[in-house]
Amino acid sequence: MKLRTLEMKLERVSGIPNPDPVKEQYMTSAPLAARLLFDAYLAGDIEGCSVCDLGSGTGILSIGAALLGAGEVVGVEGDARLVAIARENAEKLSVDCRFIADDVKSLRESFDTVVMNPPFGAQSEHADRPFIDAALRAAPVVYGIFNTGTMPFLASYIRGRAEITGVVSALFPIKRTFSFHSRDLLEIPVEIVCMRRT
Q1: Hey, what's the signal peptide range on this chain (predicted)?
Q2: Cβ atoms < 10 Å from Cβ of 184
Q3: What pLDDT is stored for residue 159 in this prediction?
């Protein structure tokens, strides 16, 4: 499957109704999700692999992994209402994904690859850390979306457990969603980061 084809398919994934700003519930855009997944696919970390999507929201990364031929896909999301939407999205795109309503800290299964768009910690400091910890426990390779400028912290935080083996710059489009948003569209510079356990 070509990158653009994947992107077009992911445009069909329904977003987050009444998102919670404290939980930083922002929908990952189809182009950004497709870019992360396609990079992981080209590296051999999706097709035929068991893939876990931490903080899966309405399932865009899970569904994309399944479309790219993942052997097993599990999405873990703490908000049960989003799990229900993710299941509907997977059915709409005719893919097989298992979605679990649970805190990422409770994850005990092992996978080949983790994909995730964790909270950046803008509303709740260090909100990304439980995701990083859970990801590195669950799989030897992790692809995540992080705020640009996070790399020094991330490299330090994972030292002794993993190393950063790839970084791709991208933009995270955020439409006006909450009362504190002052613009119709804000594009946040982000980095798609690949971490591999050492």
Answers
A1: none
A2: 7
A3: 98
Instruction: Write the single-letter amino acid at 94.
Output: S
Q: What is the mean pLDDT of residues 78-94?
A: 97
| Cβ(144)–Cβ(158) below 8 Å | no
Decide if 133 contacts 108 (C-beta within 8 A). no
Closest CA to 118 of 70, 91, 157: 157
CB 92 within 8 A of CB 60: no
CA distance 185 to 106: 35
Low-confidence winner among 89-93, 99-103, 113-117, 175-179 (lowest mean pLDDT) = 175-179
What is the reported pLDDT for 122?
61
The C-alpha atoms of residue 18 and residue 109 are separated, in whole angstroms, by 30
d(CA 51, CA 140): 11
Question: Which of 15-19, 88-92, 132-136, 178-182 is the least confident region?
Answer: 178-182
User: What are phi and psi for residue 122, nearest 5 degrees?
Assistant: -75, -35
- Section 167-178 average pLDDT: 81
Q: Quick one: pLDDT at residue 181?
A: 52
- CA 134 to chain CA centroid, Å, is 13
Residues listed for the chain: 198
Strands 185-197 and 141-147, sheet pairing: antiparallel
